[in-house]
Model the fold of this input.
Amino acid sequence: MLVTALAIRITAGRFLRSRVAASLAPALSVGLYYVLTTNYHLTQTEALLGLPLLLALITASTAVRNTCRTPRRWLFGSGLAAGVVLVFKAPYVVLPALFWLLALVEWRRAHGDGIWRGVRDLGWPVLAGFLIPVSATVVYLASKDVLGLAWWTFVVHPREEATHGGVNPQRLADSVVWFARTFRVPLILAIIGAWDRLRGGWDLLTASLVTWVGAGAMVIFIQVISWWPYHFLVLLIPIGLLAAQGVQTVWVTATGGALPRRARAVAAASLLVVAALLFRQAQSVPAMVTAVFSARPLPFDTASMRAYQAHRSRDYAGALAATSFLRDGDSAAGPIYVFGNPNLYLLAGRSPAIRLLVWGTSPPVGEWKELLTELDDASPPYIFVSDQTLHTMITFIPRRVTESELAGLGTWLGRRYQKLRTDAAGTWYVRADVTT
Done:
């Protein structure tokens, strides 16, 4: 996120006349992201997706400037960033595509070329950059024999979930209300900034930022199986940049001597109201900073970061305690397998024993027998079983596994493994021939 803040500051420097307003842009996006969200939101990828989206936008807009001498290099970078977007969150690749469309309009305005000539001249470097991360990902997944599983995860399963699970309008309403209330200050300023910029005529960067917000909201809306609050965090960067413009607009209006006194008074009052709202929301900052340093994350080595995670999250504290025996020298080496939250692999410092994972609604329908076969062949020294995860598998529609198939897991474990320890999260099993 530090790199994201730097990219926002550089963009704001090109976008705004006021250095003060440009310096506020990272605070109105990345800063408020850390101040106003919780651990639940901070562990999602939507906010991180903002960096490649911003890079795709900036490189495309730079490429079509009249002063740009190497447009193809910048467009290659834009395609590269868009490829990263596709790999992490495929639906949002619509946004870079819209940035390129707007850049093509700018190219035509600046050079007078036809649309199809612009597509021919500018499209191939974008495509070349785009294919690099996408091809690398496909090759990697193929080498692990999980291309079919990836297709199920990103295409088949969402369709199944939408068909059988239905939609939850209340969740969408709650998420919209949460985002609007939590980020009301930058939203108000962003509306002012966008209005001020748009009334001045065509501007590629402004049009792209407004498109990011509008089209991004539409992409969120069509993801009917989700509609979680954290999805809206993908909109923070354009809102922060437009909010910085809003600060500049209100300040210029309040201090402009040539403007009517009433307009200056309204602008000054607006600044005071916004400052009061922001101050009220920022009151938690001292307590947050104190909590971070009391958790002792420094010097950012493995031990200090685990201590920080345990201090900040009850779930992580429980997972770290449950996997502590796997991190000492007395446990058997090698991959493990978890019928539960995959973060146990990370916190245990172990890799999965097989390619198919069991978590939430996984594995795909019809894969259970293959999973057990692969697990039997791998015979990892330790297996963790969460009863809640197994219950989800037999209650989810379409059902991932039958109760009789699930009973086969218990039979297999009883034949090959012994119970090692049990807690509220689940049970660890150790292979019978492993010395404990």
